[in-house]
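Sequence only, no structure available. Ideas?
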Amino acid sequence: MTIFASVFEGGPAAASHTLADGWGPDVDAVGPPESYGSGFDGSGFDGCGFDGSGFDGSGFSEFTEFELAAAPASDLVFDQMSVLSLIMASAADAERMRGVNDDTLTELAGIYAAQERQIRAQLALIAGEVARRSAPEFGLKGFAQSKGHRTPAEFLRVTTGTSLRDATRAVAVGTLLLEAADAERAPEPIIDAGTGEVLDLMPVPPAPTAPWMTGVARGVRAGTISVEKADAIRRGLGNPDKLTGDADADAMRIDVGALTRAADQLAAEAPTLDVDRLLIRARELRDEIDVAGVALREKRLYEARALRVYRRADGGYRATWDMDPETGAVVVEIRDRATSPKLGGPRFVGKEAAEHAERIENDPRTPEQLASDVFLELLRAGSAAEPELLLGEGAPAVRVLVTMTDLKSGIGVAYIEGHDAPVSLATAERHICEEGFQQLLFDAESRPLDLGRIRRLFSKKQRLALSARDGGCMFPGCCRPASWCEAHHIRHFVRDHGDTNIDDGILLCRHHHRLVHDQGWEFRRRAIDGVMRFQLIPPAVIDPQQTPRLLPTKSPAYRRVLATAHAPTD
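Reply:
I predicted one. Tokens follow.
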């Protein structure tokens, strides 16, 4: 259901606007300012905890003339208070919620999430309208400014009690929604109230500032995309490249058309991704379509590197470290190696490695304390350190993944294993120059070829191939990196007499590895569009139909392999 029945559009430059989507009467029916809010005494809401106290219509007389370009506020307020009364009357208390079964609880979570999306969408529309009425050209007469606030976001933060970050997001998305609605609306006639004669047409509104987001805006209005997801898409994709005057550079630039296709693709993927993963996906997609910009962004991250140490008031110190992708990869590798057994990392095979992991698990220090002490000891030891004594597996290894197609053509990107942000081919070539390379081959179906002999446990080389292909725990919704994962036989080694080879292996974190075995989840391989893909089959107790769930790779490097291997050739 739609929580808010209507929110008006208009503003200082559109004094004759009617309600968005055709709701409500024309502005000609609007009464004087003093009539707004009159007659609202809270009657009819005493059954839901709302007594109308403090709401007597006072304050509505402060509205300026251009703010009244909509239906009577009393109609809007009554509509929404009616809906609010239904919500409050149907709210479930803790005892009632405790008594529902698992299926009902899951269904309620989806219903409440849908309601929240609608509410936040309507709040974003309000935020966009506040921003429109607070445009700089109105000066101190603008909506937010006339209320004593510097910006629309500040007005919303104070009025609604939300954070400044949420208010800023609402303004940005609300502006997109209003601009998209303006672009879709046909010019409205200006009619003489006395004669009914059509005098002219309303001026055509300016083009949207982000036309590539129109499809996303439709999703927000339809309730399929939340405000938070729309903002993630907006921030992740960024803006089109500006024209430089250089013919070669401009030919490679990302234009509105490319961003529109990317935004529409993300709008289709949005219902299956949470906000954090959607933001990552949007950035990945921008990198995929903007190969030329990867080196520039990498350079900016490198130039922004910084280590800052602050003295706290209690005598301690605090450090912040802004790292480029390569530096971050080294630091994360060391931290994970030092703490992953305590945090549920992979089980170790060799006797010495198992003993090392057991020592870490039994260490009384927290993972954060352990990581701090490890880095301190590394700094103390300096270049003479013997890292295998401290970390168990020798010096930190950073693997850069790049397709041979990109390397030979000189056009493309590379990826540091375990990290989503791409790096330039120049970075990959530097690593090859310094450390050499190990070639990982893929067959015609883009499957990594087996690098080791068949045995009970996956070898280190096989795990490298699995890491490059899977990119981390393949269980839906999990974001554990490959370094924290174990190799699972999709055809069980004992039960199914499965082989220890790449095709029968898949990466799972320890939690999901245990869950798969304990609950009876199954995996299978299927060729889809010429590519071998994994599907997850839930147990019957969770899904009686046992509907297969397609598992996309979490490795941006492997996605690049698929893109270059199956790209059309001239």
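Residues 1-71, 387-395, 450-455 have pLDDT under 50 and may be disordered.
Hope that gets you unstuck.
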